[in-house]
Amino acid sequence: MDQEPIPEEGRSPDRPLHLINGSPALTQEREFKVQLTEEGAQRLEQLLGPPARTVFQRNHYLDTPDGLLRTHHYGLRLREESLGPRPTSDRRFILTLKGPSITSGALVERLEEEIELNGSTAQRILEEGLDPRGARLDLLGTMADRFGMHWVACLGCVTNERRVFLVRLTDREEPHELELDRTLFPDGSVGYEAELELPPGPKAEVELPPGPPAEIEEQALRELLASAGLPWTPSRSGKYTRFLQCRGQA
């Protein structure tokens, strides 16, 4: 039985949905990702002071039984997030397709397409899976047609506690959001990471265009970490890759 298309609803808690004629648009995600130790995360948080907000996330990952998406270096995530550690009425659900990444040091760039779901739709996907052809994600639908992908199901999840700090790293009017993540993986290991998201790059189609230079932001972030006595350690792998490593699939 074909699944009903996912309704388009609302906005992501972290950033707005980019819509073109009522459909999510491909955007270029650009962010610095720096690996931290538990002690390093504590020292950086002490330097930054109280966070602007704390978000609790469960990242559910989906793929075909034979791993078709990850074979082509794509990741499909259904994120459940709220402002408290327990499920509450403020929960949001965002379905995101992430494309292959281009990494230069700590800077990671990739195509991203996302849509927000209501709770009942998200729960149905987690329990029953999803026909990617009805997901309202254009790139996912294109991949489904090209590779004969008819169904994806939930592989498992990681939990993440994200503290968001507003920091002024450059002379731009709006402060940057620096995110400190504490992630619990299925094998019981815990990872710590700092992420600094940059403004989106040029409008994306299917291939990833080069983004604008980010030397100023990188130098400012390096100096911030150094002021906390922390080294510049680019993250070696993302949360999804570490999740797959726990399952012996990376």
Could you characterize what this model shows?
- The protein is of the alpha+beta class and 250 residues long.
- The chain has one domain (19-246): Beta Barrel (Hypothetical Protein Pfu-838710-001).
- The protein is 22% helix and 36% strand.
- It has 6 helices and 10 strands, in the order E-E-E-H-E-H-E-E-E-H-H-E-E-E-H-H.
- An 8-stranded antiparallel barrel has the order 3-7-6-5-4-8-9-10, surrounded by 4 helices. The protein has a two-stranded antiparallel ribbon with strand order 1-2.
- The longest helix has 13 residues, at 215-227.
- It is globular.
- Mean pLDDT is 85; it is low at 1-22.
Summarize the model shown:
By secondary structure, the protein is of the alpha+beta class. Helix content is 22%, strand content 36%.
Provide tags for this entry.
8-stranded antiparallel barrel; two-stranded antiparallel ribbon; 6 helices; 22% helix; 36% strand; disordered N terminus
Rounded to the nearest angstrom, the distance between the terminal CA atoms is 32 Å
Name the CATH architecture: Beta Barrel
Instruction: Compute the number of strand runs.
Output: 10
For the record, what is the CATH homologous superfamily label?
Hypothetical Protein Pfu-838710-001
Fold-level CATH name? Hypothetical Protein Pfu-838710-001
Low-pLDDT stretches = 1-22
Q: Determine Rg (CA atoms, Å).
A: 18 Å
Domains (count):
1
The CATH class is Mainly Beta
Beta content:
35-45%
SSE order, as H and E? EEEHEHEEEHHEEEHH
Number of helices: 6
